[in-house]
Amino acid sequence: MTQLVVVLDGTIVSISLPQAQLELDMTDVQRQWVVTAYALTFGSLLLLGGRIADFWGRKRTYILGLAGFGIASAYGGLIHTGNELIIARGLQGVFAALMAPSALAILTITFPRGRERNTAFAVFGAVAGMGAAVGLLLGGVLTEYASWRWCLLVNVPIVIIVALAAAYLLQESKAEGDTKLDVLGTVLVVTGLGSVVYGFTKAEEGWDQAAAWIFLGAGVALLVAFFGWQARAPHPMLPLRILNRTRSGAFLMQMVAGATMVGAMLYLTFHMQIVLGLTPLHTGLGMVVQTVAISATVPVVTRLLPRFGPRPFMIIGPLIAAGAMLFLTRVTVSGSYWTEVMPSLIVNGIGMAMLFVPVQNLSLLGVDPHDAGAASATGNASNQVGASIGLAVFTTIYAEVTAGSHEPAVLVDGYHAVFRTGAIVLFIGSIIAFTMIRGTKEQLMPGMDRRS
User: Fold this and answer.
1) CA-based angle 438:441:446, to the nearest 5?
2) Membrane-spanning residues where (predicted)?
3) Distance between CA atoms of 375 and 363, rounded to whole angstroms?
4) What is the percent of the chain where pLDDT is above 90?
5) This prediction's pTM
6) Which of 72, 34, 269 is nearest to 152 (CA)?
7) Could you give the count of Cα atoms lying within 13 Å of 177 in the half-sphere of its Cβ?
8) How far apart are CA 241 and CA 323, in angstroms?
9) What is residue 435's predicted lDDT score, i.e. its pLDDT?
10) How many Cβ atoms sit within 10 Å of the Cβ of residue 164?
11) Using CA atoms, how far apart are residues 394 and 382, in angstroms rounded to an integer?
């Protein structure tokens, strides 16, 4: 339920954004930041959230995150300006950064190895894959029949139920030994990621903008400083021992998944509503085929994973998804959802499911229990940072092509550019898997057997 809420909230407001933009009189830049504020605060604070969970207690941190997330959601559903909505989304991201790594760390500790672990992570990965599409569908239903505000308010009863269940069902656990937080590391990674994303946002006004290059350069420098500090910090937020070759490859693959599933799919929903004229409900329903494709593919991949290991799926899956993105570059102003959009969603769902099933498990394989929260946070952070940077890049490319025009033909050209870029990102992801995910299936996922 936690993974569903976390991923769902990355996309649920996407369907409602056109209506929220009209009601709150938001600019296009503010519209983008409604999505980016959540992904950026979530991604940049996840490492800190993971360490808090390890040291303070995973169950305690988890319940605190749930409570704060519910309060932030209630605030977001009651605001009256675009800036307030952006603030509410940022607060959602802050508390999601507490509950998400806690949940994944609890899963890692509960299922340390073997067949049950494979099944648990297959379910977790499937929910991660389906959550984005479920968010689009639920967002469509709520926007059509209630209000865009319910895309935020719907979280309140969910988190109350989950928090009550957690209080009774979960056992407390925490890391032993050093339990000091890395304050400097937190400042470096948060400001670094924020500067990079803001730099891409400024680039929407043109790459000749000095501010864009200043923020991008500063962000890269801060992130380099962050990794340098982690190598010698007495209590690192991200212990570099976590970043072996295979695990680093899995984290990079999660960035690729976040960039395409949030960034590129957001622009597909804009095409379906603004150009094809579909209602929010019909747009959400139209995205369900991707969820169905993911749901149908996950059990097949789960059964085949013990036989072939994760590497082939992590290479082939992104290539299949890239093909779906290239097919989307054929969308037209007068086109049909059935012939131009739906086939791509089905193929993309198949390709992404092949990635989702192994990547979560692989990114946490062999992690010491002391570092479970940090490792799970790094995986989640990779996905959210990929989403925020990917959305900023896609928005910059879209803005350059459309140059402020609202003519349907020009908008479609902008969408084509976004989808082509998404295909390139997925192709790069396949290369990452080919070069970094190395070893036999027994080495990559020990304890697996064909019964798994």
Assistant:
1) 110
2) 32-50, 62-80, 86-109, 121-141, 147-169, 181-198, 210-229, 250-270, 282-301, 313-333, 345-364, 385-405, 417-437
3) 8
4) 39
5) 0.80
6) 72
7) 8
8) 36
9) 94
10) 12
11) 17
Specify the pLDDT at position 321. Answer: 97
C-alpha span between 448 and 358 (Å, rounded)? 12
**Calpha distance 67→178 (Å, rounded):** 27
**CA gap 139, 16 in Å, rounded:** 6
* Residue among 180, 173, 151, 126 at smallest CA distance from 15: 151
- Span 345-403, pLDDT tens digits: 999 999 999 998 888 778 777 777 767 667 777 877 788 788 878 888 898 899 889 98
List pLDDT tens digits, range 295-326: 889 889 888 888 888 899 999 999 999 999 99
Q: What is the pLDDT of residue 425?
A: 96
Written as six digits, the tokens of 335 are 């086109």
d(CA 360, CA 162): 22
The number of residues making up the chain comes to 452
SS3 string of the chain?
CHHHHHHHHHHHHHHHHHHHHHHHCCCHHHHHHHHHHHHHHHHHHHHHHHHHHHHHCHHHHHHHHHHHHHHHHHHHCCCCCHHHHHHHHHHHHHHHHHHHHHHHHHHHHHCCCHHHHHHHHHHHHHHHHHHHHHHHHHHHHHHHHCCCCHHHHCHHHHHHHHHHHHHHHCCCCCCCCCCCCCHHHHHHHHHHHHHHHHHHHHHHHCCCCHHHHHHHHHHHHHHHHHHHHHHHCCCCCCCHHHCCHHHHHHHHHHHHHHHHHHHHHHHHHHHHHHHCCCCHHHHHHHHHHHHHHHHHHHHHHHHHHHHHCHHHHHHHHHHHHHHHHHHHCCCCCCCCHHHHHHHHHHHHHHHHHHHHHHHHHHHCCCCCHHHHHHHHHHHHHHHHHHHHHHHHHHHHHHHHHHCCCCCHHHHHHHHHHHHHHHHHHHHHHHHHHHHHCCCCHHHHCCCCCCCC
